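Entry type: protein chain
Record version: 2
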Amino acid sequence: ASGYWSVYKDWLVVASQINVQVVEAKTGKSLWQKTGSFRGLDTGNNKVFVTKDEAVEAYDLATGSLVWQAVGPTRLTIRPFYDPQNNVVIGSYANYYVYEADTGAILLQAPALDVAQNPYFSDVAQVYKGLLFHGDQVFDTMTGKQIHPQKFQMWRSSTPFIVDDVILLNGYKELVAENLSSFSSIWRYQVPDSEGNPLGIIGDPVALDGAVYILLSDASLRALDLKTGKELGKWQSAQIVDRRDFQTPFITALETGDDMLFASFGTNELCAFGE
């Protein structure tokens, strides 16, 4: 994906390959932005963490001031992840870097993780409870050691959403909810066809208040029950553009935070849904 979102407290953070911007979540008012060549972001500890070519940087979330800069991977620069359980940032998986979140000190520099040899997996990951879900395996964030031999398919997921020990995976024609303890399927949602036209899931699902939300290629926003996968309803947009293969700030994606649901359909509009 060419861009990422993150919601932290009252702020919505959007990063593309050309800039990072922070806006007020409830108003959309821009607070600050930085231009440059960015590879992705995450938020936590009142900071914005970004990867750049051969560097990882942390900015103060409220002011945009640079807190620290550290040497990053030279061969592959991908999205960083903040691990709140250990207060560290995972900056790379090709060469495994772990940074202290307050200072940027490198706590671990290790060889590449042992993951499936699939180039698509180079940017498919999520951190949850001190665990790194990367590719189709699970690692300890602090050591990079594999701790689960079980595997599950990430399919088209870029940043799989995890809630209440359930991981939601985009299979394009279906959405799968997997139990992280047993690695077993809880439910599968089959994407319906629309008047004979095949539909697919664009981007990753998110969950909020017991519902799972997905974007479909017919520009509809669908709500599913988190426990059963049953469709609860939909909201129809006028247009959707799948921009994952374009260098653009217009991200086709969903994000949750501050009790709100944010949706971008790949156009120049950002939609925010409340109660």
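Comment: Confidence is low (pLDDT under 50) at residues 117-121.
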